[in-house]
Design brief:
195 residues; alpha+beta; 4-stranded mixed beta sheet; 9 strands; 31% helix; 29% strand
């Protein structure tokens, strides 16, 4: 009797461990994650609008047909990204994901408090290379540190009625996600000081 109970407990424990390991490992070994599915459809460091969600055609899970959706697939190896998203009439949100679909930051139009959500996305090393300028305060510039070099930025604009979908899509079409042309002043001043 004790052997039977011990065997059942060991089986349940082993099954639980196998289940937990497989659930945790699946996102890392899956070949068709959101980043992989969006790679052929999107340009690097540029905003690309996604087609409207319908039951037979969804590129990402849990897409709501009331939202216009655009994606910026980013790579920070060539420099920080400057993101600008005009606020739509109803609601606008911006979410940041690592390459392995780990959400690490989100902002919406209500928390931004402006007509345009504007921010800089960079790695921690790029952030540390920025000059400490007294004229630029945290209120003037929103800087997001990405935990990885590559990832996705998902932009969403709500269309509360089907007739307002073109307006929501237009606000996302006016968005930009591009590598910053100007390098940090600390790096630019270093060669001049050596002369």
């Amino acid at each position: 009797m004790i052997r039977l109970v011990f065997t059942i407990l060991a089986g349940v424990l082993l099954g639980g461990v196998v289940h937990l390991v497989s659930v945790l490992a699946l996102p890392r070994i899956a070949s068709q994650d959101a980043y992989s599915r969006l790679t052929p459809l999107t340009k690097l460091n540029a905003v690309t609008q996604l087609p409207p969600a319908d039951p037979g055609n969804t590129l990402m899970p849990y897409m709501d047909p009331a939202f216009a959706v655009a994606v910026c697939r980013y790579d920070l190896s060539s420099g920080p990204i400057k993101l600008k998203v005009p606020v739509s009439q109803a609601y606008t949100s911006v979410s940041f994901y690592t390459r392995n679909e780990l959400a690490y930051y989100a902002i919406n139009d209500r928390s931004a408090g402006k007509k345009v959500i504007e921010l800089d996305l960079m790695t921690e090393a790029q952030h540390n290379d920025l000059p400490e300028d007294e004229d630029i305060t945290a209120a003037d510039r929103l800087i997001i540190d990405s935990p990885t070099t590559t990832g996705l930025i998902v932009l969403k604009a709500l269309a509360p009625e089907p007739g307002l979908m073109p307006q929501a899509q237009a606000s996302l079409a006016a968005s930009s996600c591009s590598v910053q042309a100007d390098q940090p002043a600390k790096q630019a001043e270093a060669p001049q000081a050596r002369r």
